[in-house]
Amino acid sequence: MKKPIVTNDYDSSIGSLKNYITGFLLALILTLLAYFLVTQKIYTSYNQIIAIISGLAIVQLFVQLIFFLHLGRESKPRWNVTVFVFAALVVVIIIVGSIWIMNNLNYNMNHSDSKIIKDELIH
Amino acid sequence: MNNTAAVANDKISIEKENTNKTLFGFWLYLMTDCVMFAALFACYAVLHGNTFGGPKGSDIFSMPYILAETLLLLTSSFTCGIAMLYARKNQKKIVLYALIATFILGLSFLTMELHEFRSLVIDGHSWRQSAFLSSYFTLVGTHGLHITIGLFWMIVVSYQIYKKGLKELSIKRLALLSLFWHFLDIIWIFIFTVVYLMGVV
Q1: Same domain, A21 and A60
Q2: Are A81 and A69 members of one domain?
Q3: What pTM was computed for the model?
Q4: Chain B: residue nearest A79 by CA?
């Protein structure tokens, strides 16, 4: 018999009730934690809280990928994971690249803004 | 006798392989959808400060309201997973109840979102006011559009399961739907964090 090309067997990758409940509770805790950190203003600086809530979102991304989407449970070769990693790379390039380029453009084009003068110490 | 059993076995394994291929194809689609959302997120990240004299995020977002929306969608993602779990165990009744719960939660989420959009537009803060609001409505609206499509899809799949039972084909469709629904919940986590939480910090 021909060897199947895509071998992830979704029967074995469905997970159990315990799995779903764990994932749900973890997601709930992470969401509420991020919410209360921001609304109760439990942080010292802007950069700190941005880093913390971004971190919490990324942790929750993996919680949901593992407990709800069962990523990584398929048998080899792991095409789903491969495609996911590539998509994540493209996403990072698009987002980080856009912010980087547009900030640069803003910096170089916005002559009416006195920020540029302050930044370069021109008086 | 032996021969027919082997043929039947072969048929099942071919069917399974087809299902796995479909699931993989759908996963590919979801990843490209992810790239589209990345472009919208990048757009929002670049434009969120350009309010053109209009309101900032912190002026228009009501956080308890947004938290309620988030919890509704998270719970619906969970019940959708439950539906998939019991479909594998061949328990039609639980699957249908779980799907109905998912549908109601998803519909409440959508209603809350549309209500939020409506009150923003009534207050004069529509997408026409500033680049920030344009990118906001595009990003959140695109997610809402996906949710709407998912809800229609859920009606079709539930009806099929109700009429024809848990056959291989209807389980496959349910599996695709649950992938889609979990994916939308993940996108929402990032909207919740990037748009709303970072908007009010």
Answers
A1: yes
A2: no
A3: 0.88
A4: B24
What interface predicted TM-score (ipTM) does this complex get? 0.90
CB count, 10 Å around CB of A97? 11
Residue A105, chain B, CB below 8 Å: the answer is: no
Residue A3 lies inside a defined structural domain of this protein: no
Whether residues A87 and A59 fall in one domain: no
Tell me if chain B has a CB within 8 Å of the CB of A63: no
Nearest CB partner across the interface for A87, out of B34, B185, B189: B34
Residues A113 and A98 occupy one common structural domain = yes
Q: How far is CA B79 from CA A88, B143, B155, in A?
A: 27, 20, 15
Q: Please answer whether residues B83 and B98 qualify as being in contact, where contact means their C-beta atoms are separated by less than 8 angstroms.
A: yes
pLDDT in tens, chain B (201 residues): 567 777 777 877 888 888 889 999 999 999 999 999 999 999 999 999 889 988 999 999 999 999 999 999 999 999 999 999 999 889 999 999 999 999 999 999 999 999 999 999 999 999 999 999 999 999 999 999 999 999 999 999 999 999 999 988 899 999 999 999 999 999 999 999 999 999 998
Residue of B nearest to A44 (CA): B201
Q: Are residues A59 and A14 in the same domain?
A: yes
Contacts of B28 in chain A (CB under 8 A): 83
CB neighbours of B187 closer than 8 A, spacing ≥ 6? B34, B37, B143, B146
Nearest CA in chain A to B7: A1
Q: What is the DSSP letter of B192?
A: I
**Same domain for A12 and A48:** yes
Distance from chain centroid for Cα B46: 25
Q: Which domain holds residue A15?
A: 8-75
What is the number of structural domains in chain A? 2
CATH of the domain at B60: 1.20.120.80
